[in-house]
Amino acid sequence: MAESKELVLSDAISSPDFIQDLLPTAERTALLYNMSYLCLGSFPKLERLLRERAVETQMLFGSSEAILLKCVGTSDNLVKSLLPSLKVAAEKNKPQLALKFLEKAKEWIGEIIRDVKEIVKRYQKHNSDVAKSTSDIITEKEETEKKQQQQTSEMEALEKIVEALEENLHQINKEIKESDKKIEKKNAEIQQFINSIINTKDEQLLLLQAPVMMPGVAPGVAIFSMIVPFVDSIMRFISKMVTSASQKSMISSLQTGLSELTSAQQRLKEQEWDIQNKLMDKQLQLAKLKIENGQMPSVSHLGEVQTCLSRIQQILLQLQKFWENVGSLLDTLKQRTFAGETWIEELADMKEYFLESIDLAKEGWTEFGISCMKGKKIFSIQSNQAYKFLEISPSSLSKEDWEKEYDNVKEKLEKISRNTVNENAITLGE
Asked: From which domain of life does this come (predicted)?
């Protein structure tokens, strides 16, 4: 039973607001497909291939919307039904009834976990299909590049700028990976500290080891962390419970350290986004110069399509990672449901902490449900509206209309920022 109380926090996310990157990512995906679609007007075969990939992405976004809606429903049921019922069971000292409610939660969570695992597989397969399409376009590009004329000095200068930006982007990506490792290390330190609080079941032994700690801290923290899988919420709860100056100092140090690392990583990601926008701008300038200098427009356009599809692959990997994180979170919730059985059996001795944990858990699940609803609406907008460009073949556009549409898509891409939130996209009705 002691092992069942080991709470693995490494898979927990530090905040329930994990949807924040979805909107710019989803919008960028549709715009990149739009740009690619416009550039393939002279290649009917490749145009049909790209259409297939875009429709697959659109359908995948629709499935993502449905799963997030399930998450919203589960959160709503927990907040409005299960947790209130669990509170009543605790107030009436009925541990067996409380366990029945937790078993019901495991059933709900298990169903969502299966759905999430399935959509992760779909993202993996779809990414492979996009990679194959990218390879087909590269082959087409290589077969026509032999016919290109000598590049001008201005084009060569732009190519050097592009190479420099790509190198900068590579360096920023390395720094972001290093930042991820530091954050993982800091989260491990926080996990170790939390486990040092909750892994002592003998209350008297805990008081001997840490006499300045309030009685009931370990079980109180364990119960709270069983229901609320968010590290920052757990640390705030512990901060309220402990009275030791050294432990309060440790909590403050850990929280400050994680905050500094997170802020530093945020700055790096903003730099990454800025470089990506500059890189795309220079690549588009280079493509325009190739057209103006009499080179085959198909070649430069195929280069753009290759770039766009490569970025779509990166975005699909990010979305796949998003769903893997959701799956990890749900696995953690399921594990904690089992881990709480022993504490529930001792319900009569710690009713006050249990009731307080339930109230705080309702707040956490409410935030989680709100975030999932935002994500659901983002996927809904993208799957229903963002791919209307597929209704018109680019080859049917006049030169003037084509250039107007091209410039419009380019402008939208350049305006997208990692921290931009389109309020219309997250407040529209379902």
From this structure: Eukaryota
